[in-house]
Amino acid sequence: MAIRVLLVDDQPLLRTGFRMILEAEQDIAVVGEAGDGLQALDQVRALQPDVVLMDIRMPRMDGVEATRQITGPGRDGPAKVLVLTTFDLDEYVVEALRAGASGFLLKDAPANELVQAIRVVASGEAMLAPSITRRLLDKYAGHLPSGDEPVPDTLHTLTDREVEVLKLVARGLSNAEIAADLFVSETTVKTHVGHVLTKLGLRDRVQAAVYAYESGLVRPGAQ
Predict the structure, then answer these.
(1) CB neighbours (10 Å) of residue 200?
(2) Any idea which residues bear 4-aspartylphosphate here (predicted)?
(3) Rg from Cα positions in the chain
């Protein structure tokens, strides 16, 4: 079945460009468009998309609040949110990730990256590109813990190996890369990631990365 995509952006020309790119793919169908967050909520309820390609800065309701209402607690619909951001990174992207977005994509990303991002998010994974994630979190280093704060009690529920895995997730490594780094199988890594998400009550790898930085487990700029 085709991946059902809703395009949300206040610039009609951008929506047209995204539609042309995505409709060229046999496994993707653009089911609707919206020009602001309020329209997006109506369209999500009416169309039940699999993925919402969400702009951040829009009139009436921005992409952060729309994301929160689409993916927040108690929401059991299928929609995943992929946030669109400008090259210099919106100051609201971290909030969108906290709100439940499954990842973010640069607005000037090549067409093949856009298509791949849609497929990855639709499959239940998170878009966590290491280079963009590092720049994003380093940009907000002043707003994140220094690492001197007490470790949250929830971290103590993790095993030593799960803590290692969480640190590597925060660096943006894929399951395959983590497996190679720890000399274990990719299946084992998937199991560890699943345990981390369950124990910490997190939605996906993106929220796990944000948690790792906010808790002080990983410091911005650290290698």
Answers:
(1) 19
(2) 55
(3) 17
* Contact (CB, 8 A) for 221 and 138: yes
Helix, strand, coil % over all residues of the chain, rounded to 5: 50, 15, 35
- The model's confidence at residue 33, banded by pLDDT at 50, 70 and 90, is very high
The Cα–Cα gap between 147 and 141 comes to 11
Q: What is the pLDDT of residues 151-186, one digit of tens each?
A: 567 788 999 999 999 988 887 788 888 999 999 998
Q: Is-contact 139 215, C-beta < 8 A?
A: no
Q: Over the stretch 84-131, which tens digit does the pLDDT of each residue have?
A: 887 666 677 777 777 788 888 888 888 998 998 899 888 877 776 666
Do the beta carbons of residue 166 and residue 205 sit within 8 Å?
no
- The 10 Å Cβ neighbour count of residue 140 is 16
- Closest C-alpha to 203, from 98, 116, 120: 98
pTM, whole model, 2 decimals? 0.73
Average pLDDT in the chain:
83
The structure tokens listed for 216 are 């002080």
The two structure tokens encoding residue 193: 């990631």
